[in-house]
């Protein structure tokens, strides 16, 4: 078991109170590390360090140098990837292959923003006067960043890389369940050239995150997590009128028309909701199937779901690991019980029976069918491997069902008819729409939702803009007095 410290102002420190908390391996339920439990005082130290770093030099570091720092972080990430992927799997439960993909994306994210740093620029506008009017883009200042537990280091990269690119300083809090890979990655910051105080890492529970949000010297909050916590953050941030970026999950429809490629559709439906144990904000947990192929596709999905191997993510044969915590396991089991009252159970519906899986936080991949879209399992985000299969007749029926949700993060459409696909794309109320695929995500493209799935966008140039503000500059070229008086 390893004991970690927090990174504040370039120094590794304990919590001021001396308090720590246990970090578990969800495959075994055993304690694998201890981390500091940051208090309001610790958060204040971190914010003051970030503010000082911003005001006393970081804001003046050239874009070229910020880009080089990001590229050095990417290079170190690739070098350390095998070791960090193992830590990610042991801490989060996901299969090792998925951790390796995730951490490769971490390196790609830092590389992208390393290249973008020198491409951020303002504009010059033509105005009806003898003057020059400019819009300058400047960094916001101190960003508070709160990371979820489903993609621990990747979600941190989505926030760290654009903030560094834009010239901000940061106080970042990983989820209490999965802080280890970010703490390990933070050990590379100084070697990459990040001055002390530019990135500060604090660990703790919801109270630690609340202290970051409430702090008067934090200029922006970036949060990925539940809709309920997102509401709390908005209310708190309103006290100091912070800029807020929220990615709050969804109940994404995965829509299959009768003319879709059948084998690809079956794989796409399963992957859309069972990858990463279903702990995916964009999970295609509502599977809408057109009636002519409904039974055939349901039978094929059930047969293939039965072959998914559950187990410790460190076993290369594992296709689904444990969920992240006992609390999350119990939440999923509750929804499985609700589903048995609301719909028909095709496969799964509880915990696995194998003796070697009893100590970990495992749940079975579960498929409910003949689900009504009004059912709780179709309307509420479960954040686990639970699929709700819903039949539909016509294109307009699929669209109505798909949009009948408070969420609007993602959607997918499967058909060989590109005209039909594009009609759906235009009318689906979602920030991300895939056609004949589900879940591919690239750093070049914007990520974020409609409706109650959040505010703002991550990734691409949109992600950097979230950490910048615009200043209008008017330069008068007419030396004649105004003559107003």
The structural class is: alpha/beta
| Tally of alpha and pi helices | 15
Q: What integer is the average pLDDT?
A: 98
Helix coverage percent: 25-40%
Radius of gyration: 24 Å
Categorize the overall geometry: globular
The strand count comes to 21
Provide an overview of this structure.
The strands form 5 sheets. The protein has a 7-stranded mixed sheet, with helices on both faces. Helix content is 38%, strand content 21%. The termini are far apart. The chain is globular and about 80 Å long. It is of the alpha/beta class.
List the helices and strands and how they pair.
Elements: E1 2-3, E2 6-8, E3 11-13, E4 20-25, E5 30-36, H1 40-55, H2 63-92, H3 96-116, E6 123-125, E7 131-139, E8 142-146, H4 152-166, E9 169-173, H5 180-185, H6 189-192, E10 199-201, H7 206-214, E11 220-224, H8 227-237, E12 243-247, E13 253-256, H9 262-274, E14 286-290, H10 294-305, H11 326-342, E15 344-347, E16 366-369, H12 376-379, E17 386-392, H13 395-403, E18 410-414, H14 418-427, E19 432-435, E20 454-455, H15 460-465, E21 468-476
Parallel strand pairs: 1-5, 8-9, 8-11, 9-10, 11-12, 13-14, 13-18, 14-17, 16-17, 18-19
Antiparallel strand pairs: 2-3, 4-5, 6-7, 7-21, 12-20, 15-16
Helix pairs in contact: 1-7, 2-3, 2-4, 3-4, 9-10
């Amino acid at each position: 078991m390893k004991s970690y410290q927090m990174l504040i102002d370039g120094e590794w420190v304990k919590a001021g109170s001396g308090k720590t908390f246990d970090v578990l391996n969800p495959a075994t339920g055993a304690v694998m590390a201890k981390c500091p439990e940051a208090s309001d005082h610790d958060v204040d130290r971190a914010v003051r360090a970030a503010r000082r770093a911003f005001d006393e030099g970081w804001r003046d570091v050239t874009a070229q140098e910020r880009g080089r720092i990001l590229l050095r972080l990417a290079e170190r990430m690739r070098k350390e990837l095998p070791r960090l992927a193992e830590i990610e799997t042991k801490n989060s439960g996901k299969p090792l292959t998925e951790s390796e993909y995730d951490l490769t994306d971490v390196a790609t994210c830092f590389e992208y923003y390393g290249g973008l740093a020198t491409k951020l620029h303002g504009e010059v506008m033509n105005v009806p006067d003898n003057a020059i009017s400019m819009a300058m883009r400047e960094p916001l200042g101190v960003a508070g960043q709160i990371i979820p537990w489903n993609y621990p280091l990747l979600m941190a990269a989505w926030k760290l890389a654009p903030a560094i690119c834009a010239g901000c300083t940061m106080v970042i809090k990983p989820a209490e369940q999965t802080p280890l890979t970010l703490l390990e990655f933070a050990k590379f910051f100084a070697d990459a050239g990040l001055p002390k105080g530019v990135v500060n890492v604090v660990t703790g529970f919801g109270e630690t995150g609340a202290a970051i949000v409430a702090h008067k010297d934090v200029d922006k909050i970036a949060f990925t997590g539940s809709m309920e916590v997102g509401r709390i953050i908005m209310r708190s941030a309103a006290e100091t009128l912070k800029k807020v970026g929220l990615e709050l999950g969804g109940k994404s429809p995965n829509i299959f028309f009768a003319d879709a490629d059948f084998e690809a559709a079956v794989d796409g439906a399963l992957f859309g909701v069972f990858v990463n144990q279903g702990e995916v904000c964009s999970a295609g947990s509502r599977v809408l199937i057109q009636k002519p192929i409904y039974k055939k596709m349901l039978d094929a999905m059930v047969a293939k779901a039965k072959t998914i191997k559950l187990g410790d993510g460190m076993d290369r044969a594992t296709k689904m690991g444990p969920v992240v915590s006992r609390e999350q396991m119990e939440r999923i089991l509750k929804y499985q019980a609700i589903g048995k009252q609301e719909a028909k159970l095709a496969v799964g519906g509880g915990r696995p029976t194998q003796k070697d899986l009893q100590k970990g936080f495992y749940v079975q991949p579960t498929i409910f069918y003949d689900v009504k879209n009004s059912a709780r399992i179709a309307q509420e985000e479960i954040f686990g491997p639970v699929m709700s299969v819903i039949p539909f007749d016509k294109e307009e029926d699929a669209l109505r069902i798909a949009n009948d949700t408070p969420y609007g993060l993602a959607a997918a459409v499967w058909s060989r008819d590109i005209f039909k696909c594009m009609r759906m794309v235009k009318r689906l109320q979602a920030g991300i729409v895939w056609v004949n695929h589900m879940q591919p995500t690239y750093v070049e493209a914007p990520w974020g939702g409609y409706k109650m799935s959040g505010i703002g966008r991550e990734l691409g140039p949109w992600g950097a803009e979230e950490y910048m503000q615009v200043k209008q500059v008017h330069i008068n070229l007419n030396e004649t007095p105004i003559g107003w008086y």
